[in-house]
Amino acid sequence: MARLSRSMVACLHSARLALLAILVSGGIVLQVLACALYSNWWPMLTVVMYVILPMPLLFFAGNESSSIMSGGNDGWANFTKFLTGASIVGSIAIPSILKHAGIIGWGALAMELSSFAIFGVAILWFLQMSTEEEYSAF
């Protein structure tokens, strides 16, 4: 494959960032629509989990973004993994419990879970992009 010019590489990276921003915006729109379309704002409880989700990574993982994926026996890394997992389970459990209690309908549950899936894809894509060597060259 031919080597691309620096301006073309910058354009491709900008496009990837724009697509990442569109993914996050789509997740937010689904989150709000799940509440607004059904005139029920209880599904917004999952926003608390979306805010709590990155906190363990910010506080305990340090400056190494791949530490959450490592298999080491560091106590703080294990605590970070536990808190992140609890936040992820809470992001799925809150809409499921609200549906089971009859507070929200099937449409709101589907929108909430698809919003979670979109946010998950965006986070995984961001982690993949942040570990690339050429991406950090700018």
Automatic annotation (TrEMBL):
Its subcellular locations are: Membrane
Protein's GO biological process? late endosome to vacuole transport via multivesicular body sorting pathway
- Coiled coil ranges (UniProt) are none
The record ties this protein, via Pfam families, to: Vps55
Its transmembrane ranges are: 44-61, 82-98, 104-127
> How does the protein's chain sit in the membrane according to the entry?
Multi-pass membrane protein
An example GO CC term for this entry is: endosome
Q: What keywords are annotated for this sequence in UniProt?
A: Membrane, Transmembrane, Transmembrane helix
Q: Which family does it belong to?
A: Belongs to the OB-RGRP/VPS55 family.
What name does UniProt use for this protein? Vacuolar protein sorting 55
